[in-house]
Q: What sequence folds into this?
């Protein structure tokens, strides 16, 4: 149980890293979004990379925004519903505006992610200790009962 709090924090930080990379690629390279997403999928951990990989593949048949929302919804990660809603917020402007508009949308999403990261750190610190202590206590109780 305590591991899910650590994993959520790790996933949020990895998503922030991916968005920072995305912002830099958009600003300086003028590469198409599917190509950038494919590159990002190789540079971040598996479950976050999967979102970018699936989104890139879906962009062949769908708009960038729809592909992004679909990939986030179908992903296997430790995000809460609120985390997913913030991440999916990027879809509103994805591929629909000029470079400056997309960069500002990425920055806005990153700011919201920062708040989620702080929240995840607080939850992790509070609940991880609780579940570890609870696990140790239950384990000791079982040992005492068996003796």
A:
């Amino acid at each position: 149980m305590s591991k899910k709090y650590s994993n959520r924090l790790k996933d949020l930080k990895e998503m922030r890293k991916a968005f920072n990379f995305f912002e830099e690629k958009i600003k300086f390279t003028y590469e198409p979004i599917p190509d950038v997403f494919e590159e990002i999928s190789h540079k971040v951990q598996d479950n976050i990379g999967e979102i970018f990989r699936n989104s890139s593949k879906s962009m062949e048949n769908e708009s960038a925004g729809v592909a992004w929302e679909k990939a986030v919804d179908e992903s296997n990660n430790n995000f809460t519903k609120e985390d997913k809603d913030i991440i999916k917020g990027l879809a509103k402007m994805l591929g629909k505006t000029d470079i400056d508009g997309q960069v500002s949308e990425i920055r806005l999403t990153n700011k919201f992610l920062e708040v989620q990261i702080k929240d995840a750190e607080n939850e992790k610190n509070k609940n991880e200790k609780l579940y570890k202590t609870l696990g140790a206590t239950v384990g000791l109780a079982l040992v005492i009962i068996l003796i």
